[in-house]
Amino acid sequence: MRSKLVGLTDAASLIPSGSTLAIGGSIIRRSPVALIRELIRQGKNGFTVLSYPAGYTTDLLAGAGAVDRVEAVYEGLFQFGHSYNFRRGVEEGRIEVRDFDEITQAARFRAAAAGLPFAITDALLGTGMAEHNPEQVKEIADPFTGRRLHAVPAAEADFTLLHGYTADEYGNVQFPLIRDADDLDPVLAKASRRLIVTVERIVPHSEILKIPTQTYIPHPWVEAIVEVPFGAHPLSCDGWYDEDEEHFAEYQRLSQAGEFDSYLDKYVRGPADHAEYLATALTPARLLELSVR
Amino acid sequence: MTSPSDYSLNELMVVAAARELRDGDLIFIGVGTAGRAFTLACGIPIAAARLAQETHAPNLAIYWNNLLSPDLQQIPEKLTQRYLTSWPTAAQLHNCSEKNDMLQKGRFQVSFDSAPQIDRFGNLNITAIGDYRHPTRRLIGALAQTDHFAYVERPLILTDLKKRSFVEKVDFITSVGYLDGGTSRADAGLRPGGPSRVITDKAIFGFDDETKEMTVLSVHASSSVDEVLAEMSFTPRLPDEVPETVAPSAEELRLIREVIDPRRILLIA
Prior knowledge:
The structure holds 2 protein chains of 2 kinds. Chain A has helices spanning 8-13, 33-41, 56-63, 84-91, 102-113, 128-131, 185-191, 205-210, 245-256, 260-269, 274-281, 284-290; strands spanning 20-23, 47-51, 53-54, 67-72, 74-75, 96-99, 118-121, 138-141, 148-153, 159-167, 173-174, 195-202, 215-217, 224-227.
């Protein structure tokens, strides 16, 4: 095993504008937000986002004008409301979107994970998703029974970006014992071509050896591993910190009002790096409040 | 007997939903995007599931946020991530595709669904208003609501009755109900199924066995047939005599207020 440890800036530098990104986490939980902020800081744009539920990260990219196309099962911010940046982008024709139901989108990632060209689904029969996406939803017949089905292409991304809990420098990423499993990260990791994982903490390899069944992303899948404490903020990272409801309120107020540039200036383009972001977005007292460890 | 001034419409909807749940049901509860949508998609369904456990279906279980069979006697005080992660639950499956397989294999008896647009044949739209590629209002996408209508035995729709929501034909079919009515759902290749009930703030609807048209089953005491029809862009089937929706009992109200949602984190809007 060789060390794959890199800094956040260098990790983001690997990703060219126009790439197709698979982004992990779930809506307002454990997405690689610091890495997305760094991409915006570096002026990258023209991305296609493949996601299971797209949430905060897609909306952030949309607010920075950095996303051209989204394929996902959901775009919104759960209890915090709509994805106003994304919604505006679609309604104004700047963002192209193709919708998939959860089963079909997961099947697309599972096909990619298995190295297969397409997945089979009967979830889209009769739906608008099939009617309005003939390029990606093709009718086929079950070769055994003749029953009508759809084929959908494997979800192949250029880069897969995930945020995790702990890892060693080789890229063995581990779950904590108690976690929320409401995401598709293990499948996204397996489906990746070039996988970048940010984690809350790099631990010694000896820590990983203690419970190897906790390793959900093994080192051969990983290209770069980055230590980014509070790397999902303002989202939650289950077992580490809660979502920052105050930050979300500010985010939603500015994005709904169409004043998102002021958010980007303050929190994304303004701070030179993640440390400066944390100093801008959080006080030590607030950090302790959000921490659940 | 209780009268409409004794209970809220949310409480009535909780009770109406609970009565549709059966002992042993496995119930899929989805995601709600803030305020009223959260109450309809998550709050009322969770409260209804717990109420049914307390009254007539002790062995039902829910799936929510990848918690399979969370202990409904221990609904947490808040619903932020911290509380969800530590909510005592029978299983946290490895990742969401486990749940997808469960859905596709037909392991769920009930799902709760809500939508800004629903039509005469119970098709739902949560994706886009207007033209799909140039929408006047982009909505949230599809979630698993497509899958609920494809694979769940008795999907329950919870939504407010509004003229702009109850339309002759949805702009986009996110979830296939009975498509164009009659046998069109089966003709399109879908598995048997389709929505079971539509529970609203004014009335409860079912679907005609033959034509699959939305049919008024009962109207709430606080409303009237005329008021119901005024809030719909199509005319549903109406029985000659429209019964009144059974009101919550005093005991059901006590359970909702004192036992199930004392902190008002479920019925928030």
